[in-house]
C-alpha cells in the first residue's frame, strides 16, 4: 500500500472514527525509511496510549492536549526494526477506561460491522482499523479486556499476552498490576508473528520477564488429540446471549470431534472478578493519574495560585469516567476503608488465582465466551456504569491472574454481529493458545 492509498481508504471510512491522529508528513518519512525484516512494509495502527516518537500522545484525553513524546515505546522500536510502518494513532476510551470507546475526548469509534453499534473498548479504534481493513494489524492494551472485548465485537483476533511477556516501557500506565500490550490481527498466525516480534525481556520495564520467547509461527500446528481443555461452568450462566453460548458450545464440540479431551471444570470465585478488578484497577489508576497536575504534561487549567491550578487542571482536563475511577480508587485506599475494600480485594484476587492454578493442573487451556453479548447499541450503557462494567465479566480474570488470553471469531448472531470465543492458558504458554486458535480457525472454514 502507498501513503495515498492508505489515506484514501481512511477517508472512505472516516465516519468510523478509528484514527485520532495521522500525520501525512511523518507517514511519508516512515514509508521512506523502512527496515528490512519479517514485517517489511506492513502497516500497523497504534492505540494512542503508546508512545511513538514524533507523534502526539493524547490517551483520548483533553489532559494531554498538545503533548509530544520524546521517545518511542519498546514495542514500537521492535516493530520498526522488523520493517513495520506506524500508520497513526487510534481512538480509545480516555486513558483506556471503558468498554465501548464512547468515553473518548475525540468522540466514539463505531463498530466496523454495524455502525449503529459500539466499537467496544477501550482499544476500539485499533480493532475497527483492522476490522475495516485500513491496516495490516494493530496494537492495543489490555487491562481488563480492552484488546479482547473489542476484538470480539469486530470479528478480529485479539491477544492479551501473559503479564511480563511484553515490555510496557512507553505504555501510559492505567493499572500497573494488570496492563499488557497485545496485537490485534485478522488471523491467529499473524498474531503469533507479531507477538514473536514484540515479546521479550526489556531492562527498561522491571515487570518484563527474562524467559525465552519460542518460535510461535513454526509451532502453530499441533493435533487436537494432544490437548485437554477445561470448560468452566461459571462462564455459561445468567445473562449470556443464547447465540453466544451456542457458537462457543459448537466450537467445543468441534474440538472434541477433532480429538481433544473436554472436561467440565469449576472456577468458583468468578462472580467476584468484576468487583475485585474495579476496586484494584481504580486504586492503581488513582495513583498513576496523580502525575497529571498541569505542570508536567499537556493541558493546564489555570495560571492562578498553585492550588487553583491543580484543581482547575484536573477538573477540566479529565472526563467523567476517569474522574469516577479516580474518586473510587481514592476512596478504597483511604484510611478506614483500605482494609475492607482494597485489602479485601487483594485477598480475593489471590483466591481467584488459586482457582485457575488448580484447574491448570488438569487442563492445558480453558475455553469460554469472550463477552456475554455481541456488540451493544451506541448509547445503551452510557448512563449505567454497572451495566458497562458487567460486560467485562469474562475478560477480567485473565488480568487478575496474569495469564495469556485470546479472543477469536466463531460466528455471528442473527443480526450478523460477530461472536468471540476466548482461550486462556497458563502463564507464558501463549503457544498453546496459538495452536488451539489455529484449530478453531480451521473449524470456521
Ligand atoms: N473495560 C475495562 C475498564 O474499563 C478494561 C479496560 C482496559 O482493559 N483497558 O477498566
Would you kindly provide a written description of the structure presented here, covering whatever features stand out?
This protein has one domain (1-445): Alpha-Beta Complex (Amidase signature (AS) enzymes), CATH 3.90.1300. It is globular and about 70 Å long. The protein contains 14 helices and 11 strands. The chain has helices at 3-12, 24-32, 74-81, 124-131, 148-154, 188-198, 242-257, 273-288, 306-317, 320-333, 339-359, 385-390, 396-401, 430-444; strands spanning 19-21, 43-47, 85-90, 137-142, 157-160, 180-185, 228-232, 261-265, 365-369, 405-412, 418-424. Strand 2, helix 3 and strand 3 (85-90) form a beta-alpha-beta unit. It has an 11-stranded mixed sheet with strand order 1-3-2-4-6-5-10-11-9-7-8, with helices on both faces. The model has no long low-confidence stretch (mean pLDDT 97). 36% of the residues lie in helices and 13% in strands. Helix 8 (273-288) crosses helix 10 (320-333). By secondary structure, the chain is of the alpha/beta class. The structure holds glutamine. Glutamine is lined by residues 96-99, 122, 141-146, 174, 281, 392.
Outline the fold blueprint.
Layout: H1 3-12, E1 19-21, H2 24-32, E2 43-47, H3 74-81, E3 85-90, H4 124-131, E4 137-142, H5 148-154, E5 157-160, E6 180-185, H6 188-198, E7 228-232, H7 242-257, E8 261-265, H8 273-288, H9 306-317, H10 320-333, H11 339-359, E9 365-369, H12 385-390, H13 396-401, E10 405-412, E11 418-424, H14 430-444
Parallel strand pairs: 2-3, 2-4, 7-8, 7-9
Antiparallel strand pairs: 1-3, 4-6, 5-6, 5-10, 9-11, 10-11
Helix pairs in contact: 6-14, 8-10, 8-11
The structure holds glutamine (GLN).
Residues 96-99, 122, 141-146, 174, 281, 392 line the site of glutamine.
